[in-house]
Design brief:
The complex is a heterodimer.
Chain A lengths: L4 E9 L6 E6 L2 E7 L1 H11 L4 E5 L7 H12 L6 E4 L5 H10 L3 E4 L1 H5 L2 H10 L4 E10 L9 E3 L2 E9 L4 E6 H11 L3 E6 L11 H10 L4 E4 L5 H10 L4 E4 L1 H4 L5 H10 L7
Parallel strand pairs in A: 1-4, 1-13, 4-5, 5-6, 6-7, 7-11, 11-12, 12-13
Antiparallel strand pairs in A: 1-2, 2-3, 7-9, 8-9, 9-10
Helix pairs in contact in A: 1-2, 8-10
Chain B lengths: L1 E5 L7 H9 L3 E5 L10 E4 L5 H8 L3 H10 L3 E4 L1 H4 L4 E2 L2 E4 L6 E5 L8 E6 L1 E2 L14 E6 L1 E5 L5 E6 L3 E8 L2 E4 L7 H16 L1
Parallel strand pairs in B: 1-2, 1-3, 3-4, 4-14, 5-7
Antiparallel strand pairs in B: 5-6, 7-11, 8-10, 9-12, 12-13, 13-14
Classes of the chains: A alpha/beta, B alpha/beta.
Protein name (chain A): Imidazole glycerol phosphate synthase subunit HisF
Function (chain A): IGPS catalyzes the conversion of PRFAR and glutamine to IGP, AICAR and glutamate. The HisF subunit catalyzes the cyclization activity that produces IGP and AICAR from PRFAR using the ammonia provided by the HisH subunit.
Subunit structure (chain A): Heterodimer of HisH and HisF.
Chain lengths: 270, 200
């Protein structure tokens, strides 16, 4: 039986020579967490099912730094590596694959030019193309939106781009379905309202997306405890849970989280 | 002892290269069919679509067939397993046809692609699965799966909507649907078994 995946996410600031892992709260208030490949290696040894690197600086002149981070990580981490942030072209995709990544995540580029999803899937296969959606809850009614019941009433979700700095106007639920149709292999779904808050995953959002697509959904944003992961797996169709803060600051090891989930009956790889 | 990783222009060979290097094998990327003859073992990787892989693999076919007949162990991984079959629902191109059977899409009852860690049901002994048990997880990423005409080639299956062939072997030809190079320490064990076999 396919196991639920636990994925540590490393947001990388590449403005320093070797890069560093940082973590923000609701995409702001950045805090330093460690050296990218050292953290990745620790998570691998603890049993991480996959590692995600996101270049939050997303600037093309720092691309070499990201390649170096991937190369150093891939030397002793033998689980899949997904890399995102600033991927603009097939050339960028090739670069991260040559460095040792297995998947890319695209957000801004895909929103601006959706065909890039088909291009990546055509060249490297759907499994190599993860579409990242940063979703912001909107409670004010808006014509033509897909709404879902939330504690705030009937809400819709707006997809954000440029690392949460701008809003696209695109309905995140409709976009998830379109991304699937274009050939995305997975959806990495981040709740901007929950990101870094430790308040738990956004269940209505995660459920709404996983109900609408037939590809795996990775739930992200808000994980503050193993119980939050248990909740998102028991209440939604998410295939994987992504977390950053609880792993970075040694509050929980990946192994401890998995043991907790296994005791509660979640099928995880131990 | 050198192990060739057939570099026919698809996907990321860095992972398999690194994994072989990590376990003490001497991996070499073989970019030309002429290079294939001088290795103790051959790894045929594969990502992306069946047709795209086959179009680029055709020129290696005679060289690969020759070393297979000479008894060199060959390991196909993921689409590198699927190309050993006669053909696939995914693309019109013909496969290598070394194993009778076809490649079909995963059933609509499950999320496709299968992405993630799954366990094996080991059906019979297979050299490269030595030390592996039904409790061990391996990383799968695929939308299509192999259906051999002769079920006895299947050494292990995995459950995903139906019983999917996860590992097959026929004499010195081995193949796995999952990615041993991305399956943690247990995956490295499988590669170690393959390398040991290559040295015999």
């Amino acid at each position: 039986m396919l196991a639920k995946r636990i994925i540590p996410c490393l947001d990388c600031d590449l403005a320093v020579p070797q890069g560093r892992v940082v973590k923000g709260v609701e995409f702001k208030k950045i805090r330093y967490a460690g050296v990218p490949w050292e953290l990745a290696s620790r998570y691998y040894r603890e049993g991480a099912d996959e590692i995600v690197f996101l270049d939050i600086t997303a600037s093309s002149d720092r691309r070499e730094t990201m390649y170096n981070v991937i190369r150093k990580t891939a030397e002793n981490v033998f689980v899949p590596l997904a890399v995102g942030g600033g991927i603009k072209s097939l050339e960028d995709v090739r670069g991260v694959f040559v460095a040792g990544a297995d998947k890319v995540t695209v957000n801004t580029t895909a929103l601006k030019r959706p065909e890039v999803i088909s291009e990546i899937a055509g060249e490297y296969g759907s499994q190599a193309c993860v579409v990242a959606i940063d979703a912001k809850r909107r409670d004010a009614p808006s014509e033509g939106r897909i709404t879902v019941p939330t504690p705030q009433g009937e809400s819709w979700f707006e997809a954000s781009f440029y690392g949460g700095r701008e809003f696209s106007g695109v309905d995140a639920l409709a976009w998830a379905m379109e991304a699937e149709a274009l050939g995305a292999g997975e959806i990495l779904l981040t709740s901007m309202d929950r990101d870094g808050t430790y308040d738990g995953f956004d269940i209505p959002l995660t459920q709404a997306v996983s109900d609408r697509v037939r590809i795996p959904v990775i739930a992200s944003g808000g994980c503050g405890s193993p119980d939050d992961i248990f909740e998102v797996f028991s209440r939604t169709g998410a295939s994987a849970a992504l977390a950053a803060s609880i792993f970075h600051y040694n509050e929980w090891g990946v192994d401890a989280v998995k043991r907790y989930l296994a005791e509660k009956g979640v099928h995880v790889r131990i | 002892m050198p192990i060739a990783v057939v570099d026919y222009g698809v996907g990321n060979l860095f992972s398999i290269y690194n994994a072989l290097d990590q376990i003490g094998a001497v991996p070499k990327l073989a970019r030309d069919p002429e290079e294939i003859g001088s290795f103790d073992g051959i790894v045929v990787p594969g990502v992306g679509s069946f047709g795209r892989c086959m179009r680029r693999l055709y020129r290696f076919e005679p060289a690969l067939r020759r070393v297979l007949e000479e008894g060199t162990p060959i390991l196909g991984i993921c689409v590198g397993m699927q190309v050993l079959f006669e053909g696939s629902e995914e693309s019109p191109e013909e496969g290598l046809g070394w194993i009778a059977g076809r490649v079909v899409r995963l059933p609509a009852s499950v999320l496709v692609p299968q992405i993630g860690w799954n366990t094996l049901s080991i059906r019979r002994e297979m050299e490269i699965l030595e030390g592996i048990s039904d409790d061990d997880f391996f990383y799968f990423v695929h939308s299509y799966h192999c259906v051999p005409a002769d079920p006895s080639v299947v050494a292990a299956t995995t459950e995903y909507g139906l019983e999917v062939a996860a590992a097959i072997s026929e004499e010195n030809l081995f193949a796995v649907q999952f990615h041993p190079e991305k399956s943690g320490e247990k995956g490295l064990s499988i590669l170690r078994n393959f390398v040991r076999l290559s040295r015999c």
